[in-house]
Design goal:
The chain is α+β, with helices and mostly antiparallel strands and 173 residues long. It is 20% helix and 26% strand. It has two helices and eleven strands.
């Protein structure tokens, strides 16, 4: 209180907790907290725990882990997956786990939901599918990229080296 019995104005960012422990935040503080608390994949992608990996813009490389049940996707802060992009509707789509398959369903968004470049109302997702909400694109992963590709690449290099050595031995003989 100031000297006249009026409450002193405290800037929002410096407000302390209220009598019940309630803390007040500005909209920007909430957005920052949401960005910091965004789902992060600590382990790798798997069929039981798939991820959406950002493939465009500000989301490039960002991973969002998907959990069983239904998750909402949209621009509004109360969605499970919040995509702060103007091309994404406030309530854009759902991602659901149905009988161990992940399904994306458009919820009347303005700019549409796309799987592998095709506009969809509902689609079952497969490993490697490109999923786009408005202009924000992700890759659906049920295993790590090149999990087996790296091994085949090394095998291919080994075979190529053996062929070159064989040809060199034949040439020099």
């Amino acid at each position: 209180m100031d000297g006249h019995g009026q409450p002193t104005a405290i800037p929002r960012s410096r407000r302390s907790s209220g009598p019940q422990g309630t803390r007040l935040f500005s909209a920007e503080e909430l957005r920052q907290l949401a960005r910091e608390a965004a789902p992060v994949v600590l382990g790798g992608a798997s069929a039981a725990s798939p991820v959406l990996e950002g493939a465009s813009g500000d989301f490039l490389g960002r991973r969002i882990s998907l959990r069983p049940g239904r998750q909402t996707v949209g621009r509004r802060g109360d969605n499970d997956v919040v995509l702060e992009d103007l091309s994404v509707s406030a309530s854009h789509a759902w991602i659901m786990n149905q009988r161990n398959e992940y399904v994306v369903m458009n919820t009347l968004s303005t700019n549409g939901t796309f799987v592998n470049g095709k506009r969809v109302h509902e689609a079952t997702l497969r490993h490697g599918d490109r999923v786009r909400f408005g202009q924000v694109e992700f890759t659906f992963l049920t295993r790590e990229r090149d999990a087996g590709g790296r091994a085949w690449r090394w095998i291919g290099l080994g075979v190529a080296a053996l062929v070159v050595l064989g040809l060199a031995a034949w040439w020099l003989a």
